[in-house]
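Annex B.
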Amino acid sequence: MRFRCGSKLREAGVTAGPEAEEGRFAGAGVAPGLHFVATPIGAARDITLRALDILAGADVLAAEDTRTLRRLMEIHGVRLGDRPLVAYHDHNGEQARPRLIRALQEGKSVAYASEAGTPLVADPGFQLGRAAIEAGLPVHAAPGASAVLCALTVSGLPTDRFFFAGFPPPAEGARLRFLQEVGAVPATLVLYESPRRVGRLLAEMAVLYGPARPAVLCRELTKRFEEVVRGPLGALADAFAEREVKGEVVVLLGKPEAAEASAEEAETALRQALERLSVKDAAAEVAAKTGLNKRMLYQMALRLGEGEA
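Ribosomal RNA small subunit methyltransferase I: predicted structure tokens.
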């Protein structure tokens, strides 16, 4: 997962308790199959007892970052013993996956933990899970911490419908298309972003979606320097324009307001957009700003282009 924990576990202020000395979570055997285990996104105590049982009892452990998992197990008194701990991440998936699938085919239990949060959410575990399912092997989940749900909980934005869009592409063209596409989704929008690019992201969204759209920026959730900033998108863009941001970031946007734009307003917005964008991109941008139907705007943009040709 790109939402890093790593050495941040040490900053959580959690030390090993009596269970670490006694080896309380010794494990009593885990059912065969692949077990996806959610791990804390910051505070080391945000892990479930079931997750600790699985980590203690699985035949094979796999992790996006083995150092992070080792440290988490040490904090909670879970012994690795002589069990294999396999690194599984974006760069070695093709090599590591067959080994883990073989262990599953032999009837062993394999526990996989992302670096922080719930596996498969912005995490390389997806290919492993799919390979196990395609091979007819059992796949289980031990739910727990998730940056997406944590951010939604503290945001104050509607949670009855939300859309997790992951990380925007860094390349300019792909990024614009991505933001145009997700901006019109009628739901609370949740994105991850690098702290180095979050100022740029807020500025881009303020232009595309309008400065009044409700927005929330969550930084370092559950960690010592947790910060939640709420306000109109334009205000957040101004606040973070020159600010050096550190730590893990989640950005949330309220859903687009119901469209009230008139045909004349839509035409004016399209004409302005067509001065710098293609017909398709102009329609997508105006749809993201106004909430109007993108297909209708595309047809209108085509007519405007023909009329000016």
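Residues 1-23 have pLDDT under 50 and may be disordered. The chain has 13 helices and ten strands. Further annotation is deferred to the next reporting cycle.
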